[in-house]
Amino acid sequence: SKQLVHVKSIIRIFSVQKAKMALDAETERLRGELFAEWNKDEKSRQLERVGELLGSLKRKLITLAFLPSLGSQPSAKELLIARDVLEVGAQWSIAKGDIASFERYLSQLKCYYFDYRTQLMDSSYMNELLGLNLLSLLVQSRLAEFHTEIELLPADQLATSIYFKYPIQLEQFLMEGCYNKVFALREDSPARSYSFLLNIMTDTVRAEIASCIEKAYTRLSVADAGTMLYFSGASASDDLHAYARRRSWDLKITTCSQEFVFSQPEPEGRYVSSEGLIGNTLTYAKELERIV
Amino acid sequence: KAADEPKPAQDADAEESEKKATKPLSPADELRTHLKHIQKAVSLKEHRYITRVLRAIASTRTKLADGVLRKVIVQYLPESPSRDSLVAFLSEPMDEESDASEDTVERLNETALQQALPEIECYLHLLVLIFLLDGNQTTKATSCAGLLVEKVNTYNRRSLDAIGARCYFYFARAYEVLDRMQEIRSVLLGRLRTSTLHYDTEGQATAINLLLRNLLHFRLYDQANKLVLKIVFPSSAPNSECARFMYYCGVIKAVMLEYTESNNFLLQALQKSPQHTAIGFRQTVNKFSIVVQLLLGLIPDRALFRQKHLKKPLEPYFQLTQAVRGGDLQLFTDVVANFGDRFKADKTCHLIIRLRQNVIKAGIRKICLSYSRISLADVAARLCLGSAEDAEFIVAKAIRDGVIEASIDHRAGFMQTKDTLDQYSTTEPQAEFHKRISFCLNLHNHSVKAMRYPEKKEKEAASATASS
Questions:
Q1: HSE (CB half, 13 Å, CA atoms) of A236?
Q2: How far apart are CA B145 and CA B156, in angstroms?
Q3: Cα–Cα distance, A127 to A154 (Å, whole number)
Q4: Cβ neighbours of residue A215 closer than 8 Å, sequence gap 6 or more
Q5: CA–CA separation, B244 and B212 (whole Å)
Q6: Helix, strand, coil % (nearest 5) of chain A?
Q7: CA triplet A191, A192, A197: central angle to 5 degrees?
């Protein structure tokens, strides 16, 4: 009976392996289809189809060693397949405009980029996707995470790779306030996939500039406001007026010119909050009583 | 950190001359007195003997030698495979000095003990590990350390807590020297769990600090932050561990842009660290503290840079402070270019890059104070900003952030400063006073709390009030 148990276990191992091999064939087929669909020209590719393929591939990958877990020793081939699929997923999320899904894919990808770095060769898309990640954090003003992400990047590439230098420079300009440089850099993005996030950023930056204008200027002519806010093109003037109305700016029209007038709010601080003072004085009295 | 403490070379010399003059207290005898202390501690359940022995490790480690260790181990530990494996780490003995007769008397007394105390075993093993580390035999040290932590894990005795904590410290140190730190992370996590369950405050504190050091070494600030949020650092941990924990927390908060909290942590770390020793630790904490204060907009005191041991290491930071204070962007870029390697070695370079906007803000503030009206082109020239358009945007942002009080005239291209409000007519002085009063009251309360147990804590209270 001992030998029977032994034989049964061998058969079980063989069947698992056979199932695995069958799985691999299916995965390969799906993967081939995914890449074929994704690599088509932009006009003809269908994002929904890609989404479906990604979903079914993810289900297959879970049966293989998808993410590191105790006791699993994935082969290099499995890791490569998983990483390629995830990369396509991340790029697809950006094309679709879904930032949450992009972040999910990227958090899974980071494990492949950093923890398995010794086992796999660096992917060609790695820098681009990590740079995209930085940019998305910047656009959402999640600066603490932006800086922690920078710490994780490989130091040698940080200075050289254009994908990294781009968001870092953008952050520097935003912090300093050189918004004109921000707009100049916008034209200069290193990859096509960056344009979606950069459009979102334009709106953020424009809001920043508008709030700066409100505080810093007493009056500003309409033409100058248009250039400062970077409204351009045929409908520039209409955009500008619509924007001004949204932010409730005063428009003063005289015979010679049109101007926006900003009034400064009265400085507060003339009043002393009695509750705060009472609270403070009571704490002082209590502490002093303790010092006996 | 214990590894950074300066070896008391003068003490060793004094010992040498003392040895020749009076009855020599050989290193072996010193070890024996330590072991007697440990035995007394275990039998009387007095913790302070063990702390005294551990504090003496700093001076003991200079006197260790193969022969000394081998002699003492052979005397004190009974025959066992663990003793043989321990002795195997030491090199072959040369001609041993002839023992005085009193040694044989000691040996007879000791063999009366059926079995060596686990504390003694672990202490001797720890000394062997330290000796290997000091002798740069790092591969042997790592295997020795591995055996040691296994041994410590088998026991669950409260008297072994302090020694066990030290063992883990040197275990992590051995792996750090060999640059194999990612292997021990799970070991350290396991140790943290065990020591928390055993209410072993020293072990818990040491494990937390070692884990943080490990994570920060690989710059996993996110994970380190999560660790800090989830655990409760034991408040009754020894001061050295508290100081280290504050330092790590300060570094994490600084990277995550929470500069006020980071500043608090780093200042507390400096307060808790010893006055005259631990120079390396104080240098590192001071470097970070200066950068964080600059990021907050405070200028650190000049007297800080003139202190004896801090003068040379803080030299680049002194020039950095001058650049930030003067708002001189040119000087700032020069300093960063010149000392870039040193900043990278200190791991402060990412924080320093963020200082660029502080330099610009300081420059704008200076201009605003000195001019009532200045053209934007001149502002750009003074601040080395590039063009008047840049300057316009930067000044507008500065006005919005409340750095200066001014208004810009776009068509004429100049900026005009407003009259500054009289500070004393607002509630600002009251807020400032309140901050300082609460700080003093807090300090007083902490000192009173530290004075509760006169025999041990009085020394710490004295040093806390002396340093404040």
A1: 13
A2: 19
A3: 10
A4: A262, A264, B396, B399, B400
A5: 10
A6: 70, 5, 25
A7: 95
Strands A219-221 and A258-261: antiparallel
Q: Which helix (H) or strand (E) holds B192?
A: helix B185-197
pTM of the model as a whole: 0.79
Tell the residue number behind the tokens 């799970």, with chain if given: B186
Tokens of B411: 């068509």
| Mean pLDDT value across residues B28-36 | 81
Nearest in space to B356 (alpha carbons), one of B377, B398, B327: B327
Question: Could you tell me the pLDDT band of residue B99, with boundaries at 50, 70 and 90?
Answer: very low
Spans of chain A, pLDDT less than 70: 1, 5, 9-24, 41-45, 63-74, 234, 255-257, 265-270
Mutate to test the interface with A, among B393, B408, B423 (most CBs of A within 10 A): B393
CA angle A206, A211, A217 (to 5 degrees): 115
Alpha-carbon Rg for chain B in angstroms: 28
Q: Provide the percentage of residues in chain B whose pLDDT is more than 70.
A: 84
Residue tagged 């358009």 (tokens): B389
Q: Which tens digit of pLDDT belongs to each residue from B423-465?
A: 677 777 888 898 899 888 888 888 887 775 555 555 666 666 6
Residue B345 touches partner A, C-beta closer than 8 Å: no
Q: How many of the other CB atoms lie within 10 Å of CB of B186?
A: 9
pLDDT tens figures, B172-223? 888 888 877 777 888 888 888 888 888 888 888 988 999 999 888 888 888 8
Provide the pLDDT for residue B459.
60
Mean residue pLDDT of chain B comes to 79
Across the interface, which of A180, A208, A215 has its CB nearest the CB of B390?
A180
- Amino acid letter, residue B82: S
Inter-chain residue contact B427 with A272, CB threshold 8 Å: yes
Q: Phi, psi (5° rounding) for residue B46?
A: -105, 115
Chain A residues with CB-CB distance to B183 below 8 A: none
Structure tokens at A182: 């921000």
Name the DSSP class of A217.
B
**Residue partners of A265: CB distance under 8 A and separation at least 6:** none
B222 at A interface, C-beta within 8 A: yes
The answer, yes or no, to whether residue B329 has pLDDT greater than 60, is yes
B231-261 CB burial, b ≥16 within 10 A, e <16: bebbeebbbbbbbbbbbbbbbbbbbbebbee
pLDDT digits (tens, 9 = 90+) for B141-181: 888 888 888 888 887 777 788 888 888 888 888 888 887 77
Return d(Cα B242, Cα B209) in angstroms, integer. Answer: 9
Q: How confident is the model at residue B21 (pLDDT cuts 50, 70, 90)?
A: very low
Residue B24 DSSP label: -
